[in-house]
Amino acid sequence: MTAVDEPQSYSGTRKGEPDKTIEEVWAQPTGLRWWSSVSHRVVGKRFIYTGFAFFIIAGFLALLVRTQLIVPGNTFLDNETYNQVFTMHGTLMMFLFAIPILEGFAVYLIPMMLGARDLIFPRLGQFGYYCYLFGGIIVLSSFLFDAAPDGGWFMYVPLTTNAFTPGVSADFWLIGITFAEIASVTAAVELIVAILCARAPGMSLTKMPIFAWYILITAFMIAIGFPPLIIGSILLEANRLLGLPFFDPTVGGDPLLWQHLFWLFGHPEVYIIFLPAAGMVATILPTFVGKPLFGYGFVVAAVISMGFISFGLWAHHMFTTGLPILSLSLFSAASTMVAVPTGVQIFAFIATLAQGRPRMTTPMLFVMGFLFIFVLGGLTGVMLASVPFNWQAHDSYFVVAHLHYVLIGGMVFPLFAAFYYWAPHITGRMMSERLGKWVFWLMFIGFNATFFLMHVTGLRGMPRRIATYPEGIGWDRLNLLSTLGSYILAAGVALFIFDFIRHLRHGERAGRDPWRAGTMEWLYPTVAIGFNFHAIPPVETREPLWNNPNMLGKNAEDVEGVMRKMHDGRRETIGCDPVSGSPVQIVRLPHPTFTPMFTAFALAVAFAATIASAYFVAIAGIVAGLLGFTIWAWEPSDSGVTRDAGMGYVLPVNMIEKRSHMHIATVGTMLVLYALLGSLIFALLYLWNVYPNFAAQTAQPNLLWTGLSMLAGLVLLILAMINRRVAVADKIGLATVMNLAVILASIACTACLALAIQRTDPWGTALGATMWATLGFVALNLFITLYWALFNAARKVTGRVGAGQSLPDFNLATYAKGTAVMVLITGGLFLAATLGGLS
Amino acid sequence: MGSTLDQFGSQTTFADAGIGAARTVWLTNSMSIISLVILAFVMLVALFAWRSTGGGRVWWIIGGGIVFPLITLSVLTVASATTLRSITGEAQPEAPVIEITAYQYWWDVVHHSEGRSLRDANEIVLPLNMAVTLQLKSNDVIHSFWVPSVSGKMDMIPGRINELTITATKEGRFRGQCAEFCGLSHPLMAFEVLVLPVEEYAAYLESLDEDARDAVTPQQRRGKEVFLTSGCTACHAVNGVSENGRLGPDLSRVGARASLGAGMWRMNRGNLAGWIADVGDMKPGAQMPSYNDLSGPDLRAVAAWLESLK
Question: Most C-beta atoms within 10 A of its C-beta, which of A189, A608, A665, B246?
């Protein structure tokens, strides 16, 4: 291909006027259209501010808890309210504060650190934000209906089934949180692709700022770790709405299945919260030492191994459920092993300190606070891995102390360091160093006063989640002191809020790179331009601002780089090879739009209507959501042209190959989908193994239809491959025909799978219900394949696809292949069920 | 002997009233001390690093992050596995079996002895220095059985029977409590454990097999009559009086218990009367209806009769 100077015109291309400047193309929408912004800076800030609002609400609930426990036999809150309050405290903190606010920082910082003008999928970011906002509002609104969830943030069955929690309080939790989790998962896929596909020229993986490594691993963990909870929540909601008996031991279900699924998510969740915060520490610490992070390679290896280990520890939350002694010992030993990668990181941080003369600033104080609190939390975590000790400490206040040491130490203190550190970047003004030290000491002293004593309270026998306790058995004074400590901690947070509001008007103006940091987000003067870079500079080292005198030595907009020339009046950034970071394509980015917001709103209506049992409204919401996705994707392809990006790079726009950002996103989505399928298969095998006698009562799948479904899966697989080949070869008519063939194969797969288990009664046994749930999930994927193929065919028929624009079919083929393999796996399981002993 | 309420340390893990608790305490204490020492050490290293400018060394990471944790963790793994074995290795086939079933929010206790099933509730009597196998079950949601002074906890899960072998090594009363969140009145679901010498334990079992004490005074007789005519027998059993009620706690020796309402209030006539008249206030979510339509004298009579059942 050669560089084409004149933009090739496609009907309907949303092209800017040729004389528009880069500022105009990237201008933030104003007025009501402000809500339509897709910029990562805007979306990231929205995540951060919304997350902080949930932090304040959840923190207020915590104060209610502590106030209730200030004296024995207190009647400040009744049992019901207390249960709602601690449930919502945990739920908001874990799901609506910790993960979203960290993802917000990642969304805000990653493109600037890596040298991109925006995230790769800005609309997905907006969609995720609104899912999070609406999901959070749904969960919070339960207070208005006097139906706040009261089953604990862990929602153990059977307490949360209809028999013991009638009404809609549990539905608020299950539906609202699942909806908000969509945001976490979409943000994860978005961050994976942004980190792998959009870095500055020359920034290989080993030259990435350490924060990007932390976020990359965390995003993979979210993609794999959230699906078990999503599946668990869907199974429980199906149990509540349809009566499917997944957890009912009288028909072969098991309450422990919920716990396995929950902690398969819940344990990685802890590291998902810790790792981005540790990434902040690893970014802030070198700045104030004035030297690079010591042991970068060790830290990267530690973070990756932590990602793996975290998925093998979930059962240590279940040591008292009566697991066999052998598994107890194995999980116990595995649990302690996570101390190794943690220790590596801690000592890498300490070694970094020794590199130079650290400056004692407020962010640095919070980093040191993190070190103290988190190390102690890690040590009590190792204690809890010891089974005999765990049998005493589990579900006591010792665990409450431990988890707050880990989460507040490991996440909140680094987060406050990040607030002080990046505040000038966001607001252009410095927060007060003097007040900041007060904030730190109030929080540090208040925190330790509250939670250190709880170790003792717990070992003196006080269980968690009790609204009252009897006087005189040894818990009175400890609880009083803990409560007083919590007020001190709250005073620290209140002072922070005061200082934040004060600094917006009266804070000292921040200069360029006010902390003398080495990472690229500080290249431009604070409150930088909306598109991050006039030209994207090549990056040779991990601290470009320290090592490249050209960066801070010039006006930021004069720094040499690629993409200075703007093509076709479109928002665009450079796309790179995932490993080496060398530029391989130009990525076209979307302009502000309301479509994702509309789609998220339609889905929110669908979810909320499900809670209200207004199923027609729910269906209308889903149809509207589908319409939203269709409008979203119905736009001309940008592929098929080549442009000069400057500095000698002549690159294709939205290239068609496996390193395409769209293709990597499709693969990332498949990862999530396979984690969902894996959770269902886990449930199938678990129930089969625990209650073989009930498995024997489950009608076996029909052998003929099972065989046919596998055949249909194979056909789908082959058709998808052919579809890709003819599409890439620009045989547009043939590709349309292949789209239709894929549709037919998808229908055949669905029908054969359903016929294979038509005799299995989903209400008869838990295994039967899980088989239908698995079928439902695979059928959903087949439907998406079908809809996507139909969509691609329609675009071709309406003449919207030209030569060299086969990217949609390229990605559809990957998705269809993945789905076909799901059909084969499910068929294989059914076959095993038929041959292996279901009646 | 008085109730465990108001008794300082009646529910603490820092105790040696049972083999499980006693063998865990040294683990607790040594791990706590070692943890604090490690914390102090890490902070000292950090302080040293803060003051030095000589640069970090790779061996800090390898030594502090890999070698030291591996050694400590290996020691810990061996120590806790040994302790675990010494706690659970006590299972003896001939050990007496006590079946404990958790309900929202109380405990049904059945002693299996010489082919008999002897029922009691909310108070668990254990023989001194003798291993006992507890069969832990649940009738509704997940609960957890925990007597910190005697042994670690074990969950009670619908559809499963979890076995826990415990050996009480000290005479006396200890407080236990449900440790898994089980609903509205989870904080009000406790119980008492009474450890008796073996002979007294045998006598206790015999007393469970006998009919409840006769009503003696006119007030007690009136109380028994109210009990029989007000519907109490639909859920509660009293040996020799009415033995079919199984939905609520067995009351054959309710007056002998030191506490009422599953370990939550002292056992006395006033609390009994208050309980019967307004269960919903004392324990929200309990299945028992409030008998607030009983006349004052009848209420006092039932309370007096129940208190006499020892």
Answer: A189
